[in-house]
Amino acid sequence: MWLDTHAHFDAPEFDATRSEDWGRARAAGVLAQVIPAVAPFNFDTVRELAHAHEGSAYALGIHPMYVNALDAETALAQLRVVLEANINDSRLVAVGEIGLDGFVKELDWDKQLYFYQMQLKLAREFDLPVLLHVRHAQDTVIKYLRQYQITRGIAHAFNGSFSQAEAYIKQGMKLGFGGMMTFDKANQIRRLAAQLPIESIVLETDAPDIPPAWAYQENNYSYYLPRIAQTLASLRGVDEAALAEQLLQNTLAALPRLRAVLS
User: Fold this and answer.
1) Region for 51 from its dihedrals, namely left if φ exceeds 0, alpha if ψ lies in -120 to 50, beta otherwise
2) Residue 158 predicted with pLDDT over 90
3) Residue 97 preceded by cis peptide, ω within 30
4) pLDDT for residue 1
């Protein structure tokens, strides 16, 4: 019934209970999860986890928070090699997690921009959607999506303005919502979730990060997704079953290769 479009299932927080955690998610009605890579060190891990757990898929990319420590040409060459080697793997559904982070001031902004642009070029070359990390950089991320003509993917953990949301939507992107909208005081995110076109929204957890209100300061899990979905249904005043069907179609529009994982 539900699809978790962003879960860091390789995180060490899951090491002791990983199979149990995913079993609970499946039992709760979570049909699929997408596991994004963050740097070359976990390319193999996310692929192996996706193949080891039914309903799992993966993305390959370099997260902006990891670029400082990397040699750009070496890391991007590694990404190209692994994309080429796995492009016929139906569980590979996107280039990600990629993007820009203007919140963490220690990150090299110019290096982030280079990694982001080169990965957009790879997404174009391999005809894959993108999973976007965006903090304090919405307009710049959108600018380069336009420049490189990227028209499929998800702006993960969306927290921009209505006009920025409209720009992503116009570009063909979907917007990821998760645990933050379960907090009563998250007024802007809740307004966005309630008022944006339903066709533009997908669900995510970002597990083990961004936990919902009932698990504040604890780990997040994919099995929380159905309860997060209840919040979205309540905010929009819609039936959960109808919402689930719409979100399924939205997710498949953003990540078409996920259809093979579901079947």
Assistant:
1) alpha
2) yes
3) yes
4) 87
List of E strands, the chain: 2-4, 30-36, 56-60, 92-101, 130-135, 153-155, 174-177, 201-203
Cross-strand partners of 205: none
The average pLDDT across 244-249 equals 98
Question: Measured between alpha carbons, how far is 82 from 235 in angstroms, rounded to an integer?
Answer: 41
DSSP conformation letters of 9-48: TTSGGGTTTHHHHHHHHHHTTEEEEEEE--SGGGHHHHHH
Instruction: Kindly list the distances between the CA atom of residue 149 and the CA atoms of 1, 59, 82, 114, 232, in Å, as whole numbers in the listed order.
Output: 32, 19, 23, 17, 30
Pick the closest to residue 70 from 4, 114, 133 (CA basis).
114
pTM of the model: 0.97
Region 128-135: mean pLDDT is: 98
CB 261 within 8 Å of CB 248: no
Buried b (16+ CB within 10 A) or exposed e, 9-21: bbbebbeeebeeb
Average pLDDT score over residue span 212-226: 98
CA dist., res. 43 & res. 85, Å (int) = 12
Cα atoms in the 13 Å half-sphere on the side-chain side of 10: 21
**What tokens does 176 get?**
């990821």
CA 220 to each of CA 92, 108, 182, 230: distance values in angstroms, whole numbers, following the listed order: 23, 29, 13, 16
H or E, element range at 164: helix 162-171
Are 222 and 13 in contact by the 8 Å Cβ rule? The answer is no
